[in-house]
Write a structure and sequence with these properties.
This protein is mainly beta. It has helices spanning 48-53, 157-160, and strands at residues 3-5, 8-10, 15-16, 33-36, 60-63, 79-85, 93-96, 105-106, 119-130, 135-138, 147-154.
């Protein structure tokens, strides 16, 4: 049985918060630009692996002009982390029932865009950089067109790969 809440289905086993996390602000977030892509609701890949398989989505990051100097030191073919704000997803589920899993899971064990704080991150490869315009081409994204960017960080092998036991 699927209940309909706020125009969307809530699957069996899912748990909604009793409040809207957007109304409990502890700190502010300033966006530094937007992801541009060919993706929109209904035709986007579920993750960056699927995005690459679908041709990358014509992905790029368009920074606001005041942040373009922050690109200094980044290079073409360098891997980066792109942190972005999934601004179009519901924020009130804390337990979800993904279609691809046999049982419900807590939101912090998933990469779903439906989460209390809609911060996403994905690893991408820089394919071009225009320091004057602040446009960074990336090999792929799974983000909808015009998704706000929170930050860009370099991917560093010695830091970003967990140690083996």
């Amino acid at each position: 049985m699927i209940a309909v809440v706020d125009g969307r289905g809530v699957r069996e086993g899912e748990v909604q918060l009793g409040f809207d996390p957007a109304e409990r602000i502890n700190a502010g977030v300033t966006f530094i630009g937007h992801i541009r892509s060919q993706w929109s609701r209904g035709d986007s890949p579920r993750n960056t692996t699927q995005g690459r398989e679908a041709g990358g989505g014509n992905a790029r990051i368009e920074l606001l002009a005041s942040y373009s100097a922050g690109l200094q030191g980044l290079e073409i073919w360098q891997p980066i982390w792109v942190l972005y704000w999934m601004d179009r997803g519901p924020r009130d589920l804390v337990v979800q029932s993904p279609r691809h899993l046999p049982e419900p899971r807590g939101v912090f064990s998933l990469r779903s865009p439906v989460r209390p704080k809609p911060i996403a991150m994905s690893a991408a490869i820089i394919t071009s950089i225009d320091h004057e315009t602040g446009i960074v081409g990336i090999d792929t994204t799974d983000a909808f067109d015009r998704t706000p960017v929170v930050d860009i960080k370099p991917w560093i092998a010695g830091i970003d790969v967990p140690p083996t036991s």
